[in-house]
Amino acid sequence: MKYVRLKWNHTNPDEPVWIFSELDERGKEVRKIECFRNGFCDVATATGSSGTAALMTLPLPDLSQLAKRDPEFDGAERFDAAALAGRRADCDSIERLAAGAKRAAAVSGLSTLSGE
């Protein structure tokens, strides 16, 4: 698995400012977390999603080309899941973040992943 972190520079409060994606060997998203300016995060997986988050159906474009095509996207980079989790990388790093986002949604009374 590969992990990508993308910063989206804009002023629209209804759109995420950070996007974290887990990619399979073909570059397609397996899981995604979209974090908003207010601190709330939406989650998308193959089995469900919260809010407006959705997995891309096509492979993620080359990160170096993405910034050239759209200057709003800044800081696109691959990273080790350990940097996100703060410890040794494993395949559950994004899942732990997704679980945290679901807990935050439940505490705030917002909807969580569909079908749960």
Brief sketch in words of this structure:
By secondary structure, this protein is α+β, with helices and mostly antiparallel strands.
Topology:
Elements: E1 2-8, E2 18-23, E3 29-35, E4 41-44, H1 63-69, E5 73-79, H2 81-85, H3 93-108
Antiparallel strand pairs: 1-2, 1-5, 2-3, 3-4
Word description of this protein:
There is one protein chain. This protein has 116 residues and is an alpha+beta fold. The protein has one domain (2-108). The protein has helices at residues 63-69, 81-85, 93-108, and strands at residues 2-8, 18-23, 29-35, 41-44, 73-79. A five-stranded antiparallel sheet has the order 4-3-2-1-5, sandwiched between helices. A hairpin with a 5-residue loop joins strand 3 (29-35) and strand 4 (41-44).
Which terms summarize this structure?
116 residues; alpha+beta; five-stranded antiparallel β-sheet; 3 helices; 24% helix; globular; disordered C terminus
Please tell me what the overall shape is. globular
- Could you list the spans in which at least 5 consecutive residues all have pLDDT below 50? 84-92, 108-116
**Strand residue percentage:** 25-35%
Q: Order the strands across the largest sheet as they lie in space.
A: 4-3-2-1-5
Helix/strand-derived category reads alpha+beta
Helix content: 10-25%
* Number of distinct helices: 3
Number of DSSP strand runs? 5
Rounded to the nearest angstrom, the distance between the terminal CA atoms is: 26 Å
Return the string of H and E elements: EEEEHEHH
From the alpha-carbon coordinates, what is the Rg to the nearest angstrom?
14 Å
Overall mean pLDDT: 73
Domain tally: 1
Q: What characterizes the major β-sheet?
A: 5 strands, antiparallel
